[in-house]
Design goal:
- The chain is an all-alpha fold and 192 residues long.
- Helices cover 71% and strands 0% of the residues.
- Helix 1 packs across helix 2, helix 1 crosses helix 4 and helix 4 runs parallel beside helix 7.
- The termini are far apart.
- This is TetR family transcriptional regulator.
């Protein structure tokens, strides 16, 4: 694929991800095309269906999760707590909770079968890092990778505008509360 075609495809995925997060999975594909600066025919040449676009968005998110785990792993040797808190903040910045409805619908309808293996790999990488951080006495022993992802998705679920206006700092406070709760109280770690 040519470089300009690859950039266009990446832009479509990026804009779809942003719009699905902001407005939900039912947003018209015309809006995705317009936000990407292309016509609807170009979107359909790249993604013949909404489902194929959703799969691309999911794979993009999973790649971002794996990259965040890699960055946290690099930080872990110097400062395990910075690795953990950085990972949580990176995951929160991905706005995974805002995509939950669209992803859940696609998963229930069987569109995400090709994302099962990459999802499992991402969870395994989170679990391996979590084990290292638990063994270092940084993160509580009873926390699993899936629980981390579910917690972040819950924290980042979109709220109605009235609630966002009344409590604009809620997500930040919830992240800090989750980090405080997740800090290890001591112990040998569950993975040794």
């Amino acid at each position: 694929m040519r470089a300009d075609a690859l950039r266009r495809r990446a832009t479509l995925v990026s804009q779809a991800r942003r719009l699905f997060a902001a407005r939900g999975g039912d947003i018209g594909l015309e809006a995705v095309a317009a936000a990407s600066g292309v016509g609807i025919a170009t979107l359909y040449r790249n993604f013949p269906s909404r489902e194929s676009l959703l799969v691309a968005v999911v794979l993009d998110i999973l790649a971002d999760i794996r990259a965040a785990v890699g960055r946290a792993g690099e930080r872990g040797a110097q400062d395990p707590w910075e690795a953990w808190s950085g990972l949580v903040r990176d995951l929160v910045a991905m706005d995974v909770g805002a995509l939950t409805d669209a992803l859940g619908r696609a998963s229930r309808e069987g569109y995400l079968a090709q994302a099962v293996e990459p999802q499992q790999q991402a969870l395994e990488e989170v679990e391996q890092l979590l084990c290292r951080l638990q063994d270092a006495g940084t993160v509580r022993e009873d926390l699993s990778a899936l629980e981390v992802v579910v917690a972040v998705a819950t924290i980042t679920r979109p709220q109605p505008q009235a609630i966002r206006a009344a409590a604009p700092d809620a997500v930040g406070h919830l992240v800090e509360a989750f980090l405080a709760w997740s800090r290890a109280a001591g112990g040998a770690g569950r993975c040794r």
